[in-house]
Design a protein that fits this description.
seven-stranded mixed β-sheet; alpha/beta; 234 residues; 18% strand; 7 helices
């Protein structure tokens, strides 16, 4: 694959106000700000990301007002993009409307995600020959299927298996739900980052699990706010 140029990369945050599990999640008060504004400020504070390549994919007037407040680009997504059935080209309808070869998709639901991590992710994506890069974190634990069989390998003796000794367990990786990168034209082929059918398709970017704390439920919002305030007071 040809080398990637940062000027060909679109940095995009997708947001809406119709979250069902945490209503108005993007705009709810969070540590004196909001999840969306925290995410926007991280991108604007980066010395590496070209600001003209940064877009919000939004449709609600409240979110458009925030985009204007911070003077950032925005793409107006359609009502259809939020409705079932979900397909990649429909949800990410900007893929063939914005003039970029590549994308880095940043999840605004991860307030503990560091600016430096976003920049390291970008740097690796620019350097790799893979078409996609996927943020993950390591899991060193016992995983089972619904029949009770282990999914990952155990390399120790049975006496350690009986005590659930995790140091002999094969390391697995869990989706970080934070950072995603790929080729924009692949979205039209229903490919998000890669096919996941062969090594480095997509390539993994290993992250700190704390930074991957993802907010899907109200209790997670409360915990994330405590963690965020504590981190900023360190």
């Amino acid at each position: 694959m040809e080398s990637k140029n940062i000027n060909d990369v679109c940095f995009i945050i997708q947001a809406r106000t119709q979250s069902t599990r945490v209503p108005n999640k993007m705009l709810r008060p969070f540590a004196g700000s909001s999840l969306l504004e925290i995410a926007i400020n991280k991108i604007l504070q980066s010395s590496l990301i070209p600001k003209e390549n940064f877009y919000l994919s939004i449709m609600d007037q409240e979110l458009i007002d925030i985009a204007k407040k911070y003077n950032v680009n925005y793409f107006i997504r359609s009502e259809e993009s939020t409705q079932e059935p979900v397909t990649l080209p429909k949800v990410f309808e900007w893929y063939n409307k914005l003039p970029f070869k590549y994308y880095v998709h940043i999840n605004a639901c991860n307030p503990l995600l560091k600016i430096k991590t976003i920049e390291n992710f970008l740097q690796k994506f620019l350097e790799t020959n893979s078409r996609g890069l996927f943020g993950v974190f390591e899991k060193k634990t016992f995983l089972y299927n619904n029949k009770g069989s282990m999914l990952n390998e155990f390399y120790g003796e049975d006496k350690y298996l009986a005590t659930l000794e995790t140091k002999f367990v094969e390391t697995c990786y869990e989706a970080a739900h934070s950072l995603y990168a790929g080729v924009t034209e692949d979205i039209g082929k229903e490919i998000y980052m890669g096919t996941f059918k062969k090594p480095k398709d997509p390539e993994f970017f290993i992250m700190d699990e704390i930074e991957c704390f993802d907010i899907d439920w109200p209790w997670q919002l409360e915990i994330a706010e405590i963690m965020y305030k504590n981190k900023n007071n360190e």
